[in-house]
């Protein structure tokens, strides 16, 4: 119960310690456990679908897009319901629970692509429901000037789970004689532990009930009449269009370097290690110099990943550079973008607004993932990644212009 009781730190602690609320630490613990479960599956899924089931890159691109983007509207719906009912923890809990049970559904689906796709979509539906309420709980329990650090701490804990997940998957595969079913079972059990921690230790941020007119569909739609929110949403969508799935990045690396199948999950570990190392420093940096520059720097690192992969150069140095830049991209963008959005949104519609931003990005990701899979099938992996690099350079330039107006409102500095 300790985690839920430290939202108001004792007088005399350092300013840095006061900035991390108990809600952030509790949610970070939930995310850590849940990401062990999620990354166990994510680490083996590309190989399972392409090498194990023999799917084409185009079909994998469709499934990967569904994995993140097809349930995007649930982020917005979940955000609105959480704000309307003032039960952000309950909505997040439903999302975490749904994802946990879908790990067992993957086992039941066997080798049926339609049933696998359905289980994957339902799993991501759970993520869609929980993400906005979880991030809203972080913003509502943290002073606006410390949001970068709060999200950095949360994402660092989240990424510790992402770091451990592939290693656990490798251990399970080794112990089970390379049985993918065993990974799905263990993953589901771990996810259920995360749900239990949420129920026991996370404190909801309910507050007084707002007037009915402030949390309504017209009020939610009115968010788009605010210029900074429109600019941020447009920038998020553009940047999402230049984002391809982790699986594609790792598959390109594996094929370029001729890595053995057993090494494949360790590529995700390398990315997670960098993310884990940089999440808090980049969060602190965003609070000091501004969140928009850090987000743009992260997408510049992603562009560098594409350029490196498209260069055709191989060797251990290429692998290290790609994984370092890719982890840096996540550390600079994932939580920092939500920290940038938080102060732009009224508290009573915070979850809805964050869900709106996340929905825009997820729908853009769905489009980009499908298009990348088709481009791979048409031009091969190198041709597809080079085309993506050109697109990323264009979207980054336009997004930088859009975010200039957002900085003055959403950043702690001018």
Automatic annotation (TrEMBL):
InterPro entries per the UniProt record, alphabetical: MFS (IPR011701), MFS_dom (IPR020846), MFS_trans_sf (IPR036259)
Protein's membrane topology: Multi-pass membrane protein
Keywords of the record: Membrane, Transmembrane, Transmembrane helix
Transmembrane segments: 20-38, 58-78, 90-109, 182-202, 232-253, 259-282, 294-313, 319-341, 353-376, 382-403
Annotated Pfam families: MFS_1
Upper taxonomic lineage: Bacteria, Bacillati, Actinomycetota, Actinomycetes, Micromonosporales
Organism: Actinoplanes ianthinogenes
Protein name per Swiss-Prot or TrEMBL: MFS transporter
Cell compartments where the protein resides: Cell membrane
Domain Major facilitator superfamily (MFS) profile: 23-407
């Amino acid at each position: 119960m300790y985690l839920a009781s430290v939202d108001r730190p004792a007088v005399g602690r350092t300013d840095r310690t006061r900035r991390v609320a108990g809600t952030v630490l509790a949610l970070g613990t939930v995310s850590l456990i849940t990401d062990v479960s999620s990354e166990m599956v994510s680490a083996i899924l590309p190989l399972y679908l392409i090498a194990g089931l023999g799917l084409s890159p185009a079909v994998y691109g469709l499934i990967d897009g569904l994995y993140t983007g097809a349930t995007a509207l649930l982020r917005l719906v979940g955000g609105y319901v959480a704000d309307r009912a003032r039960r952000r923890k309950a909505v997040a809990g439903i999302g975490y629970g749904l994802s946990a049970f879908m790990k067992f559904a993957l086992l039941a689906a066997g080798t049926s692509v339609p049933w696998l796709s359905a289980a994957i979509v339902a799993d991501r539906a759970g993520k869609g429901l929980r993400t906005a309420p979880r991030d809203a709980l972080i913003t509502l329990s943290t002073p606006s000037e410390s949001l970068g650090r709060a999200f950095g701490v949360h994402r660092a804990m989240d990424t510790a789970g992402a770091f451990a997940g592939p290693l656990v998957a490798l251990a399970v595969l080794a112990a089970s004689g390379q049985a993918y079913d065993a990974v799905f079972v263990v993953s589901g059990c771990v996810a259920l532990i995360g749900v239990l921690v949420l129920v026991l230790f996370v404190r909801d941020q309910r507050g007084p009930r707002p007037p009915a007119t402030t949390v309504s569909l017209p009020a939610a739609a009115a968010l788009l009449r605010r210029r900074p929110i429109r600019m941020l949403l447009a920038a998020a969508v553009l940047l999402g269009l230049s984002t391809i799935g982790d699986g594609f990045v790792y598959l390109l690396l594996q094929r370029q370097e001729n890595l053995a199948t057993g090494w494949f999950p360790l590529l995700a570990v390398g990315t997670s290690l960098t993310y884990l190392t940089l999440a808090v420093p980049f969060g602190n940096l965003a609070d000091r110099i501004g969140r928009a520059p850090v987000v743009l720097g992260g997408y510049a690192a992603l562009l560098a990943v594409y350029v490196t992969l498209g260069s055709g150069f191989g060797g251990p140095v290429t692998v290290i550079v790609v994984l370092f830049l890719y982890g840096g991209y996540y550390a600079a963008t994932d939580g920092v973008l939500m920290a940038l959005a938080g102060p732009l949104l009224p508290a009573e519609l915070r979850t809805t607004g964050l869900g709106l931003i996340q929905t825009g990005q997820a729908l853009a990701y769905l489009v980009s993932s499908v298009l990348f899979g088709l481009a791979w099938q048409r031009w091969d992996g190198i041709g597809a990644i080079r085309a993506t690099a050109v697109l990323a350079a264009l979207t980054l330039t336009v997004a930088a212009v859009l975010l200039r107006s957002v900085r003055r409102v959403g950043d702690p500095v001018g």
